[in-house]
Every structure is written in C-alpha cells, then in structure tokens.
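Illustration 12: UDP-N-acetylmuramoylalanine--D-glutamate ligase.
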Amino acid sequence: MRLVILGGGESGIGTAILGKKKGYDVFVSDFGKIKGNYKEVLSLNSIPWEEEKHTEDLILNADVVMKSPGIPDKSPIVKKLVEKGVSVMSEIEFAAPFTNATIIGITGSNGKTTTTMLTYHLLKSAGVNVGLGGNIGKSFAWQVADNKFDYYVLELSSFQLDGVFNFKPHIAIITNISPDHLDRYEYKYENYIDSKFRITMNQTEGDYLIYDADDEAISNWLTTHQTKAKLIPFSLTKTFNEGAYIIQNKMEIKINREDFSMDTEHIALEGKHNMKNAMAATSVAKLMQIRKATIRESLSNFQGVEHRLEKVLKIQNIQYINDSKATNVNATFFALDSMNAPTVWIVGGVDKGNDYNELMSLVREKVKAIVCLGVDNKKIIDAFGNVVDMMVEVTSMSDAVRMAQRLSEKGDTVLLSPACASFDLFESYEDRGKQFKQAVKSL
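Figure caption equivalent — predicted structure in token form:
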C-alpha cells in the first residue's frame, strides 16, 4: 500500500512515522520547505521526501493520501487525486484505527484549546494514562506510533474534521460556533457549521456529545439534524436535569444521576466564556467518574493556555494581557467582555472578513484607546474611529507596546487581542504573542 503525505509539518511527519511502522510504502511531499529537524527524522526512518514541489508521478500513484489541514481542497494536486478516486484524509482519520484508546474530541470556533488543555489536566491529575494531541502539541499519529495511551484528548479544527469519514470519538465537545475561516468554505457559514458537526456523525447511542446550549448555530443544527450520541448541554442561562449550568455563582453538573457542584470563585479561569470551558471539561471528568476532590483541585490550580488571556506583567499598576490567540472577532468579544478596567486595545492583522459591529457596545463601554497593529487597518479605523478618544497606527510590536504604555494610566489594562490572523507582520499567533511579552518585559 502506497501512502503519500502532502505537507511535511507536525501532522505529516507523525503520519509518515506511523505509516512506515505499519508497513506502508511512504512518501512525503511539501510544496513549501520542510524544517530541518523534520528532515532528520525522515532520513533516520529512511522515508523519501521532496520539498518546494509536488511531483505528480510520485503522488498520483498513491493508494491513500494524508493531507495536512493547511492545504485547501481546491489545490490542484488534491483535485487531481480526488478525480482519480484516491482516498484523501486527515491525520486523525488515518491514525485512529491504529489505536484502541478511548478518544475525547474537542472542536469549536473558540475555547477549544483551553477546553482541551483543561480536560487533559483534569484526567492527568487523576492519574489517567492520557495523551494530548490533534491541533496542539505532538502529532496524534506520532503518539499512536510511539506510545501506549489508554485515552487521547484531541483538539480538532474544522480542517481536520473535513478529512474524517469513519472517525468516532467516544466523547465529543463542540464549545461554540461563530463565523471563521469562511474563505475555505465558499463563504457559506452553513458549510463551516456542518464541518464542525462531522465530529459527531459516526457516534452511536453509547457515545456523548457535550455542547453549548446557549449557542444559536449549535441549537439550530441540532433541531434540524440527528445525532445518535447522548446529548449533554451546558449553559450560563438555562438549567437541566442532565447537563451543566451556573446558578447563583455555583457550577452544577448533573450526569448519569450524579451531581457535582463547585463555587465559581474557586475556579482558576476567569470570565464567562471560561465558565463554559470549565463546564465542558468537567462534564468529561464526570463521565469518566473522576473523584470530586480531584476535579475541584484541578479546576482551582489550572494555569490556563499561553497566548489566551495570559496575564504577562503589571508595570506601574497597568496590567498587560496577551490574547494573541484571538484570531477572530468572536474570540476578541470574549476578551473585551472579561475586562474590568479601562482598556487600551491592541488590534489588527490579516482580516478574515471581520464584522466589527459585534464589538461596538463593548468597545464603547470598555476601551479608551486603540492601537492598530497591521499593514492595513482601514476597516478598524472606519469602525471605531469615532467611538474611542485615541487611535494610533503602528507596524511593529515594540512600537505597539510603547504606544499603549503612553496611552494608559494607573489602574488600566493593556490588551493584545488582535481579532485577526498574524501573517502580515508575524510568523504565527505564537510569534506575535511572544514578541508582545518580550516588548512588555523591555518597558
């Protein structure tokens, strides 16, 4: 069996290692450059590869193709493979049949990384033999090749789910759905929503779907489509006989006739959206019958995720917060919503078709000044130019932080929450966040 891998990144290399171990004839092809450390791994495992090109003769003879999530379906080589009837799948789909581990799959437009990390933290603290993968950390396929975990907690993007056909998590979570990446979905929101719900398409009566019952897109989909999974909702406004909710500053979880409650003030994560992430993760812990004391302790000592509402430093009584992971309007909405002090907001980057009107009421209420950090800031200036007193444009992170410091006074917060992708000035949102932290430390 010939396995061709398109994309020599983390998921591609992991799949190559697993494929080789399982006896496939493996070839890796990347249209860009492959990182040096990945090339070494391929050489050590005697796996042939090419970079900066796709040689059709070496690709179109594949029996199965694993496509990296970053490669769109409309790329010419993918189209040719599909026309030939070659099966093109994601790393998750390829690797899942090679493990007997129980899989917990987590998707959503926002909150999926925090929910994934918190779920992993809850299980790991309870002594569960668990791996963490998918969209974060070490490739799932690589771990299936090297490790013997009993459970996996996988963060799954819509791009990864587009390439699954038989994949079936025992527990699925959809944190929320808001418009994102629509350029990959023919600018049709319903296509993107359907893509997220692929997480539950193969689930059976013995499986679980945990979801945000306050989310309009999710609720609408569930009223017009069927899933066999047992539904476990969570909400900030409704209560359930089976599910999770917040009432009088208490988080209540009711699952399989068992109750769990905890004061929200003892939960390390702050903000309403994080209460939802905590309810989703705790629902998994309850399904797995983890002890209440362990759950309480884990929820109170969880450190959060880097680049997601991460408190960097307080300088001259001004709090600097790194929310570089906010690459869409919905994520920035959560960030602004959780601000309790006058805020200097650093925003901008590559716009993915943003509608800034959703942020208008929060900006009026919380934001005193805006620092635009991007190559093209026209939409931001048009939206908020008349709403805030001060607005400046910069093209480097160090200038952005210095300017924010000038515009702020004691008791204020400086928030980096870009609502945009980072590729105009930075390598990635991680690079953007690290540069922000470095610039703050240099003040």
